[in-house]
Specification:
Number of helices: 9
Distance between the termini: 19 Å
Pfam family, one: Aminotran_4
CATH superfamily of the largest domain: Aminotransferase class 4, branched-chain amino acid transferase, N-terminal domain
Protein name: Branched-chain-amino-acid aminotransferase
CATH class of the largest domain: Alpha Beta
Shape: globular
Mean pLDDT: 95
InterPro entries: Aminotrans_IV, Aminotrans_IV_CS, Aminotransferase-like, B_amino_transII, BCAT-like_C, BCAT-like_N, BCAT_family
CATH architecture of the largest domain: 2-Layer Sandwich
Helix content: 25-40%
GO biological process, one term: isoleucine biosynthetic process
Radius of gyration: 21 Å
Cofactor: pyridoxal 5'-phosphate
Low-confidence stretches: none
Number of domains: 2
Oligomer: single chain
CATH topology of the largest domain: D-amino Acid Aminotransferase, Chain A, domain 1
Length: 359
């Protein structure tokens, strides 16, 4: 992909950038540039460019605003101790976006072009990648996304599509140390059903989770747990994270995919746990099995994972008529978390070949 670059004539000055990187938060500050490429049936993918970060001008009839034809990805760039910058398994994000594109009737952006786009933006805005000389977990969060940009009102796949990448420095998800999250069991709402878009990373899946997440917060919980839409008994995932249940014999169970997102952190943990001699089972896992396992002690740990939090222990589970305490142990959870984070930040050997050097 031939990418043109127009430099930002008024980038954030060094003093202000230092303030931002000292306490970046999450998703509140954005780098000096953005990447854009467009698609039409006649030209295919064309006009790839890096330009100064700024607002988009959209016609009120732009298709995405009416029919929600949109997909996105979430990934990070990490600065290692020697100053080099690396991506974590970017080819897997590219492949997942292809799967999402197929489900949303989008053109497919080739894996190589996806990675080239992300790399190009990271290189232009490399000064925005925080360092972690204090042993922290700061990174540059990357948001590739694709949307129906055709000006047209009609229920059909868009004939003009735009793919973009923006970036935002991110601080550690947990300030003051990793803490167990408290979960609310949604018994009224479901996230996705068989044949739906649950396995695609599209905004509609997250929009459908918001009312349940709102309910969770009102109940004093951090996240919401969704059950399957067909029988209402099998655990699927949280609003934005996948789940794991550690058994007393060392096995780890995680809900099978199909109606849930195939998380890249999720897949990495499955490989990493295997290397740590813990067999991982991907299967249906009922809410009754969760309750009984914690009560009788056969479930020794529960944890969740996602790009932002990486790995977090799970504490208590609440629902309308009751509450279940979380398992006391977090030993394996923290071992897995440390092993993964150390690879991402270059503090441990990458024996899996997951890290992709950008500069």
């Amino acid at each position: 992909m031939d990418i043109s670059t127009t430099a930002n004539a008024a980038p954030v000055d060094d003093a202000r950038l230092a303030e931002i990187l000292a306490n970046p938060g999450f998703g509140t500050h954005f780098t000096d540039h953005m990447f854009t490429v467009e698609w039409t049936p006649e030209l295919g993918w064309h006009d790839a460019r890096i330009t100064p970060y700024g607002p988009l001008t959209l016609d009120p009839a732009t298709a995405v605003l009416h029919y929600a034809q949109e997909t996105f990805e979430g990934m990070k760039a990490y600065r290692h101790g020697d100053g080099s910058v690396h991506l974590f398994r970017p080819e897997e994000n590219a492949k997942r976006m292809i799967r999402s594109s197929q489900r949303l009737a989008f053109p497919e952006l080739p894996v190589g072009d996806f990675i080239a786009a992300v790399e190009a933006l990271v290189k232009v805005d490399e000064r925005w990648v925080p360092d972690n000389t204090d042993g922290g977990e700061k990174s540059l969060y990357l948001r590739p996304f694709m949307f129906a940009s055709e000006t047209f009102l009609g229920v059909r796949p868009a004939q003009h599509v735009t793919f973009m990448v923006i970036a935002s420095p991110a601080g550690a998800y947990f300030k003051g140390g990793v803490k167990p999250v408290t979960l609310w069991l949604s018994e009224e709402y479901t996230r996705a059903g068989r044949g739906g878009m649950g396995a695609a990373k599209t905004g509609g899946n997250y929009a459908s989770s918001l009312v349940a997440q709102q309910e969770a917060i009102a109940q004093g919980c951090d996240q919401v747990v969704f059950l399957d839409a067909q029988e209402g008994k099998y655990v699927e995932e949280l609003g934005g994270m996948n789940l794991y249940f550690v058994q007393d014999d060392g096995r780890i169970v995680t809900p099978e995919t199909g109606t849930i997102l195939e998380g890249i952190t999720r897949a990495s943990i499955i490989e990493l746990a295997g290397k740590l001699a813990h067999q991982v089972e991907e299967r249906k896992f009922s809410i009754d099995e969760w309750r009984e396992g914690v009560t009788n002690g056969s479930i020794t740990e529960i944890f969740a994972c996602g790009t932002a939090a990486v790995v977090t222990p799970v504490g208590s589970l609440k629902w309308k008529d009751g509450q279940l305490p979380g398992p006391a142990s977090t030993e394996l959870t923290m071992r897995i978390r440390s092993a993964l984070v150390d690879i991402q930040f270059g503090r441990a050997d990458d024996t899996f070949g997951w890290m992709h050097q950008v500069s």
